[in-house]
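Student: Please help interpret what follows.
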Amino acid sequence: MRFANRLKALSGNVFVDMDQAKAEAISAGKTIIDLSLGSSDLQAPNVAIAAIEKSLHDPTTHGYLLYHGTLTFREAVAKWYTHRFDVEIDPQTEVLLLIGSQEGTGHLPLAILNPQEIALLLDPGYPSYAGGVYLAGGQIHTMPLLAENQFLPVLADIPTSVLAKARLMVLNYPHNPTTSMASLSFFEETVKFCQQHDLVLVHDFPYADIVFDEIKSPPSILQADPNKSSSIEFFTFSKSYNMGGFRIGFAVGNAELVTALRKIKAIIDFNQYRGVLDGAIAALEGSQETVKQTVAEFQKRRDVFIKALNNINWLVESPQATMYVWAKLPEPWQNKSTEFCRQLVLKTGVAVSPGAGFGKQGEGYVRFALVHNPDVLEVAVKQIAGFLGETL
C-alpha cells in the first residue's frame, strides 16, 4: 500500500515517542509519574462546568454549530481581549473559534504557504508548528534559541536568501519548552521586521496567565501591532482555565488572516459542542480567581521541584513562567536526551520529555511538566536521584 510522501516528515513526535516508552514501562510493572505532557491536573472553573451542564439539558445545543452560531463566543473573546490588553477587537472579523490553539497553528500554514515556501520557526519549539508547515508542503528555517540570548531569536542572523522565500514566522512567548519570556520591545522589533519582509507573524500565546513572582503579565503580539497589519495570535483555555480536555481556543488578529484560516477550518470541521462554548464564555466573564489559584499552585510546585533538584545537585534556574522546568542534563547525558528519558521511565516510572524532541537546539536538555502535586514531585526527584546515582 502506498502513502503520501508528506507522512515521512511526520514520522517523529516527542509525545508519541514518550507514550510508547511509558507503555513499555507499564507493561514492566512500573507505576508512572508522568511529567512529560503539559496536561493540567487541576480542575476547570466551577462556573464553566455549570454552564456546560446547563447546556446539556437544552436540545437546541445538540446540533451542528456553524460559524455564525459562534458570535456570542466571539463577542466575549473581543471584550476580554480589549479589557486585558487594551487592544480593540472586532468580533465579526477578527476572532475565530478553534478546537484548541494547536488546530490554528497546525492549519494556518495551509492558508499561507505555497509548496517550497519557507516558515521561520523557533528551535527548540512546539512540534505541531513544524507539522503544519510540512502538511502545507513548505520548508522550515529554524531560528536557534540559545541561553546566551535569553532564548530569543536573533533576527539579524536570518539569511537574506531565506527571507526572499519566507512567508511566515511563528513565535511563542512565554516559551514552551524553555520557559523564557519576551518583552514588548522585542515584539515591536519583530513586527517591524515582519512588515519589512512581508511575513505573516504568528504568536502562540497559551501561557498568557502562567507567570510567577508577581511579574508583569507578558505582552500580546497585538500590543506591538495594534493595527493588526500582519499578526495573528492564538489562545487556549487549556492552561489558564485547566480546560485542555474540552478542546477550545481561539485566533484573534488580522481580519484577512482570520478569514483565510476560517476557509481552511470550514473544510475540516464544523465546531465543537455549543455547551463547551458556553463554558468558555462563563470562564472569561466570571471571576478570575480560578486563574490566580492555578498560577499560585504552579508557582508552589515550581519552588518545591527546583529545591528538590538543587538538593540532589542538579542545579536548574527557576522559571518565571509556564508550567514547565527546562533543565540542562548532567554531563554524561548531554547529547543523549532521548535515551536519558527512555531509560529513566523504564527504570523508575518517571516520564519526562527529551529536549531533542523539540528541535536540534533542545538536545542536552529535558522538560519537566509540573502536573502533579508537590508530594508527588518530590517522589519523582527521589526516583531521578536514584537513577542518576546508578548511571553517573
